[in-house]
Structures are given as structure tokens and as C-alpha cells.
Amino acid sequence: MSHALLQNIWFLLIGVLLTGYAILDGFDLGAGVLLPWVARNDRERRMVFHAIGPFWDGNEVWLLTGGGALFAAFPHVYATVFSGFYLALMLVLFALIFRAVSFEFRSRVESPRWRAFWDGALCVGSLVPALLLGVAVGNVMRGVPLTADMEYAGSFFTLLNPFSLLVGITGLAMFVTHGAVYLMNKTNGAVAERARKWALRGWFALLILTLLTGAAARWDAPARFQGKPALIWVLPALVLLFMAATRVFLAQHHPGKAFLTSSLTIGGLMALFGAACYPYLLPARNVVDIAGYQGLSIFNASASQLTLLTMLIIALIGVPIMLAYTAYIYRIFRGKVVLEEEGY
Amino acid sequence: MDPVLLARIQFGLTAAFHFLYPPVTIGLAWLIVYIGWRYLRTADPEYETMMAFWIKLFAMLFAVGVATGITMEFQFGTNWSTYSRFVGDIFGSPLAAEGVFAFFLESTFLGVLIFGRRRVSRGFYWFSTLMVAIGSTLSAFWIIVANSWQQTPTAYRIVGEGAFRRAELTNFLAAVFNPSTLPRYTHTVVASILTGAFFMAGIGAWYLLKGRHREFARRSLHIGLAAAAAASLLILVTGHLHSEQVGLTQPAKMAAFEGLFRTEQGAGLVIWGFPDAANQTVRLRIAVPRLLSFLLYFDPNATVAGLDQFPREDWPPVELSFYPYHLMVLLGGWFILISWLGLLLGKRRFTNRTFLWAVLLSLPLPWLSLELGWMAAELGRQPWAVYGLLRTRDAVSVVVPAEQVLATIILFVLIYSALLALLIFLLVREIARGPASPAHVPAKEVAR
Prior knowledge:
heterodimer; A: mainly alpha; Formate dehydrogenase/DMSO reductase fold; two-stranded antiparallel ribbon; about 75% helix; about 0% strand; globular; B: two-stranded antiparallel ribbon; about 70% helix; disordered C terminus
């Protein structure tokens, strides 16, 4: 396989990993953010913890694997983004640390104050990544200042521009909607009722914010529209179609179908993001020449042909096995949460 | 402040803290697999009780391991971006493979262990313990592959210039199985089993001293000691093979371990001493004559390279390599002594209070030896980030301001100290509460 083909395949595979992360960890991030609002007492909160408890860790591995794959396939992008977005990533990291231990620690002590603390840790620990991941996407879309040596040339505050913040809030609305639809599927009674209200509110917010982001991108990230085939307009059309379907399924009380279309909405938005950036992984906002490209592209920032090929073989062996047992475990835990003595 | 020093302090602190968790979970995972197997074979409810108890402690340790592991995955990019550019073509693949082959496996099946006991058959439940054990052991493999390549880089060629200068892969399998991978991996895995074994034996000893949960305690002590006895001998064997490899492939590191300033024919093995790098001598040196030459080259008169063979700027920090290495070796001796004493004591090991106290007090020592071994391995690699290819001082991120690193160091220290304190508090609480037979869980537990 030629180097260019492998570079394209890995662009797609990184996209698949990040999309898998957004869909899967997306629902537990969203459910975590909603915890204080959908669950009012300890029993209800335990229900939410049980709804995401068996899955969140496996879901987060999509992010870790995505990070590892980015390191392996596009080391310069990994190096530039992680060092350039230092403080933002450290914030995400601290949030993920609190979130990870909240699952194990919360149930161990009966005191209400202890439990309230870890409820807060789950909520804030989910909110920070749910918001900042979108901010990162926004910054990639509009491009960041880069040097000819591929180093990030801005500061922490460069990242906090209005457009990226808008994308961050859009992402938050997306995760909250997705998490609410998930909770409708996994819980009963008052929690499911409240989750439905949040799904409807989240859906409306996501619709408005997505349209706003699209318009703002035209103005603040015009380069993402240049030189694209007309066919690319299929993607936003699909996104709107999936969103409409989600609303219909919510109205018809079909939470299972709504979860499917909500997942497809996220997939469509991620595909749109990928198509808009291609062949760049981190476009430069300033004028700069990095080995013939205006930023870090799949061609000037990738690993060698041999590494990309080796990684492809690893993925072809490992990913189907992983998908098979993940699907099987999801099947084991299908249906609504039944609180029992085991677990949290 | 020196940004390189700050980045090193942050990496050292976060890695040392993270390294407290994966080894004990690997060790416990395999012991749980064994207990689960006994349960399947005998249907003895005591084994089911043991499984439930150890899985509970396992899950807490694992959670902190996961939480602090994310830091490590991010940190190559955040603080060592020049390193990441240089090694990415080779170092990234094992990290990605660790995700695909190991992290998914352990985290997915851990969900079954915590939530699934009533949802799956006994056989599948046991299978899940096995998958968690295999996943965590594979995870150790891939991360040690990556780290070993830093120590003994192979199967690469240097290409590019300036920011684009990097090591490119020439043969994947040769890079994976570089000279230090297998010695380091086997040594680390048996050390992990030892850590889990002493954890189990120590808690069993504590219950016996207190006269509580006798049957549970006897079996835990027995299984823990038997595993420790086997692991402590294997540590000796793998440790020897690893030292041979270091002597062969990283001679400056071996010279620092042994405080060998001058090249010597028939070099002795230092048992203890106080190295003084400034005066190039080891004070109060106790050594077995010719043994180092014999162990490294199977020839008592072989010549062993001293630090005088290397430019001063390529020396590892001698004291910081020497002390951790020798303390680790001494602890290794203690593990053999205590675990084999337990086997020799026969049934008296359950009643001899001095012995039980010794086992209980030994509980944290494998952690100490793991940390010391890791310090010896990584400080002995200095001044290189990639041995002989990239210096540590040239490997850091160029765009991250020192004050931001200082700020995150402070946050890491605060958060990690709090996590450790909470974890110890929770573990002690669970241990004091003791194992509960799953068949008759107290009402309070049900109401949780």
C-alpha cells in the first residue's frame, strides 16, 4: 500500500476512534452532567451510576486508544496539540481523574456529604471534558497559530475565542441530549421522566447551536469551505435529518430509536468536521509553510509507511475482537437498571 | 525555574504514583483467577466469599490506576513533545496496541466483575476474571515494550533534520522484542505477582492476628505465601537475566549500579556501600570478589567496563542509581526469606504471631521495591531520554511555559495526595469490615 493511501486510511481510522468515543463516552459524559438534575435522591442517583457504571471505563478507552493511535500515526499532531493546548488538556485530565474515581468511591461510605461530594465530582468531571472537547474541535476548525517548526504559537487564551466557545457549548448540548436519551432507555420512573424533559430541551438547544455554528464557521473558519466538492453538503443534510428523526422518536416515545438517531447525529457531525478539515489535522490560522502545507496535514505530519502499515494490521486484528466482546457485554447488561446489592 | 527539571519532576511524580497501582492489580487479578478456578472446581462457598472480597479491593485499586494512567498517556505529548516527535514512529504503536489489545479487554470485563455476578453464569464470571488478568498483563507488556525501546533502541534509522529529525521504524518485531523487553517484562510481571501475593498474605495475617474470619484468613495467607514463594525465586532469576542484559547493552548504567568507577578485571559484586561520585570511590564497600564478572560473563576474570570508559557528561547520577538498585536487591532477599520461612513453618505459620507480624509488616515492601527498581531503571538511563540517541534535556516541550508546569505539579501533588489518602481510608475500612458471605449479605449492604 502506498504511503498516501495509508495516510488517508489513518485519517479515517482516527476519525472512527474519535467518533466512537463521542458516541459511547458521549452518553456517559452527558448522563454525568445531568446527574444533579435528573436524580434528586440517593436511590435515583445510584440508578444513574448503575446505568453508566458497567460501561464508562470501556468507553473512555476509545479516547485513550484514539490518543495512542494519533501518537503512532501522526506523531507531530500529537506533539503539537498536546503541548500547545497544555493547560486546557490538564483541565480535562484533572476532570477525568475525579470522574474515574467517583464511580468506585461514592458507594463506599454511607454519609450523605461524602456521596454529595462524589456526585459533584461526577457532574463537574463530566462537564469539563464535555465542554472542552468541543472547544478543541472549534480551534482545529478555525486553525491555530503555528510556526514553521510545527510548534503552537498561541497562548491558553488564544484557544478561548468566541467561535470555539460556541462549538464547545454545541458539543455540550450534543452530549447532554445523548446522555438524556440514554437515561430514558436505562432508567424508570421519575429519573426517566426528567431525562425525557432534558432530552427535549437539549435537542432544541443542539438544533439552534448547530445552525449557529454552521453560520459562524462560514465567517470565522472560511478556509474549511474552500475547495470542497458539492457533495459535502450531503453531510449537513444528513445531520439535520437525523436530528429531525430524533425529535419524532422522542415525541412518539421510542427512546431506543431516538438513541440510534442521536448516535447517528453525533456520527454525522464528526464526519462533517473531518470532511471540512481534510487533509488537515491541525490547520494553521497564520500564513506558514510546513513542508508545502498550510498547517499539519496527513501528509507532512504522519508516521512512516511501515509504521502506518503495522498499525493497520494491529487494528485489523484487534478491533474486530474488541467490537465483538464489547457488543456481547452490552447485551449482558441490556434493559433497564435493576438496583441490587452488587455494584455501586 | 528550569523547565527541563520541572518536566522531569512532574513525570517522575506522576509515574511513581501511577506505578503504585497496576502491579498490585496484575498480581491480584491472577490470584483471583486462581481462587475463582478453585470455586468452580469445588463449589466451596468460602472461595466465593474470597472472590467477592478481593474483587472489591481490586476494583478500588484499579480505579485509581485507571485515573492516574490517563495522565501518563497524555504526558508524552504535553510535556515531552520533542521526544514525541522523535520517537513517535516507534513509541506510539505500542501505546495504541495497549489500548486495542489490553485496555478494552480489562475495562470491559471489569464491568462484568463489578456489576454482573447475577447476570452471568459462574463459568462466564470466572472467564471474566481471566480476561481482566490477561488484559492487565498485556497492558504491562505493551508499555514495557515502549519503555524498553527507550532503554535499548533497535530496528530504527535516523531521518530528517531540525524539528523533523526522528527515529523511523525499520522492523516492528525487532523493535518490540528489543534486547531489554523480555528481561524487563518478566521481571516486572513476577514482581507484580509478588506484590499481589504479599497484599493477600498480609491481610490474611492481620485477620489471624485479630482472630477474625479464620478460614478466609488461612486460605488467603496460604495462597499469598505460596505465590510469593514462587514469585520471589523467579524475581531472582529474571533479575539476574535483566542485569546481564544491562551489563551487555547499557554498560554505563551497570557501572553506576555497582559504583564501578574504574574498569576492572575480575570485578566484585557490591553488597552495600556508599558511593561518592565526586571522589570516584565507594566508601565502606562490602563486596564479593569476582562475582560481578562471573554473573555478567560467566567468567570470574572477565573485564567489566567502569564509568571511566564513558565521557563524564554521559554518566548516570551514580548515587541515585546505586542506592535504589541495592535496596531493591536487599528487599528481594527479604521476600525469599519470609515466604520460604512461611512454607517451612507448615501449619505453625497460621499461629506463630511473630511470623504473622512479619508478614503483615512486609505488606508494603513489594511496593517499595517496585518503586526502587523503577528508579534504578530510569535514573540509570540518564542523561538519555532515548539511550544514546536523544538527551533528556533536549526532549521536553518547547512551548510549555515553566510556570504552567509548576502550577500543574502543585495540582498533581494535591490531587494525588488526596486520592492516596482516600484510597487508603477506604481500603482500611473495607478490610476492617471484612469479607461477607455473598449468600447472606447483611441487610445494610442490600440497602445501599
